[in-house]
Amino acid sequence: MNFYKSSILKPYLTTHTLAPENQETPIHHIKRWVTPRKYVYRRNHFSYPTLTPNFFLLSVEGKVKHPLIFNFNTLLSMPSTTAAMVLECSGNKRSYFDPKVYGEQWKDGAISQGIWKGVPLRHLLTLAGLESSVKEVVFEGHDYGPRTDLEGIFSYARSLPLDKALHPDTLIAYELNGKPIPFKHGYPLRLIVPQWYGMASVKWLKRITVIDHEFRGPFQAIDYVYYPHKEDNSEKRPVTNIHVNSTIQQPMPYQLLDTGTHKISGIAYSGEGKIQEVKLSFDGGKTWDSANLKEPYNSPYSWTFWDYTWKVNEKGEYIIMSRAKDSKGNIQPLKAEWNRRGYGYNAIYAIKVKVE
Question: Which Pfam families match (predicted)?
Answer without folding.
Answer: Mo-co_dimer, Oxidored_molyb
